[in-house]
Every structure is written in C-alpha cells, then in structure tokens.
Amino acid sequence: MSVGTCTPEEQALSISSNFSSSSITCLSRGQTVGLALVAESGCISLLAVLAVLVLIFRRAFRHRSLVQQPMDVYMLSLFAFDLIMALGRVTDIKWISLGKVYTGGYCTAQGVLQQLGETGVALVTSAIAIHTFVVVMWGKLKDNLIVACSVIGCIWVFLIVFIATTVSLNTHGGNYYETPVGSWCWIGDHNRYNGERLAGEWIWMWVALGVSTCTYIPLFFWARGNITVNRVQWWKVDFHRHNDMTGIDPDGRKEDPSG
Fold first, then answer.
1. Residue 3 domain-assigned?
2. What are the Cα distances from residue 172, in Å, to 106, 132, 202, 207?
3. Which residue range(s) make up the domain with 46?
C-alpha cells in the first residue's frame, strides 16, 4: 500500500512499469521506513565527514599548509567523494516525505551525486592502495606531490566529463537518463544504458576490490617477513619462511654478520 500522495494513475504506472526504467515508483510503508534508515545513515555520514574536514582545515590554518604529503591529497579527495555520496543519500528525505520517487531535475541530481560519490570513492581507494604499495615495497613516490595531484586530477576530470556527457546526451524531452531504480534514483533502463552503468560505476567497484586484494595481501606478507623486495632492482622479489629472514636488510640484501 502506498503511503504518500500517489494518485491511482501513478500507482498503476508504478506497478506496470519495468523496475529499471520506471518514471515513478510509489513507495510502500516498508520501503519508506527502509529509506528513512538509509537517509539517517547518510546524515550521520555527512556530519562525520564534515567534522573531520573541519578538524583538517583547522589544523591546516594553524600550520599554514593544507597539503604536506601525497597522502593528504588522496585523503582530502576521498573525504570529498564521501561527502558527495552522503549528500546523495540525504536527498532521499524528499522521497520519504512524498511517498514516491519520480523522474525530473531532483531525481537527476540525486543520481549524479550518487554516481559521482560512489565511483569517486572506488577510484581514490584504488589509487591509495597502489600508492601505499609502491611506497612500502619500493620506497618510491613518498614525497611526490606531482604524481598524487595528477592522479586525483585525472579522476575528477574523468568523472565530471563522463557523467556530464552521459546525462546531457541521454536526457531530452520526456526521456530521462537518471530514473527511479527501486527506492531512489540512478542510471535507468539497464537494457539501454548497461554500458554506461558498467563504465560509470560498476567496473570501478570491482577494480577497487581487485586492486585492494592484489596490494594489501602482499603487504601483509611483507609485514610478516615472508616477502622481501630489492628497492634498487624492484623486479627482484624473494619469498621465504619467516625464520629465513635473519640477516636480510630491508633492501633484500644479506647483511654482513661481522658488521
């Protein structure tokens, strides 16, 4: 049963429409309660990220510097995408009050916020994993702000251009690119826009998972002493049991027992 302001015509359209390309979704009482919990978690995330950013900018004001090392660039961007993602969840408040989700400017804005935030978090998470791996394993890029700024710049440019292009090209007249998908808005019609869904978000989620797995697992074994890497000749990697580590320095060379 709908709990909002859905007319009988809207209710019929919501029921008859395809799940992935509906122009309107009338929310049931259970969906509204669930969406309220999602919006509440979004508000909590938003406040938490804002609190962290306030502390960061307060510290930057005291030290007259916002960015001191590459990881600062990555983390600031990660918090920015987290903030955008939280805003996307907070916008569910409108759907809760109306009891329905429908296409339009507000729906498009929510879809854009969610895609930008979620994909941005996935890409920056991958960048942090790769940067950490390179710094720990080979001691490279530790103080290289140029590389960090270039990577983050490419991520922002890619997302802004991709999302702006796909939305503008596929939104015209009564056709909307961002439509109700379940209880909120995202890229609609999976048959028509499946490629955009993959390239604009899904594939980067899997990339983040794969990159994190391929970097943090070796780092775990490096920390245990099962892996040593020659920092001069980075392609030389040795694998051994932990008790075989005696007499090996961080560069992977045997130490001289005589000192």
1. no
2. 15, 44, 25, 32
3. 8-223
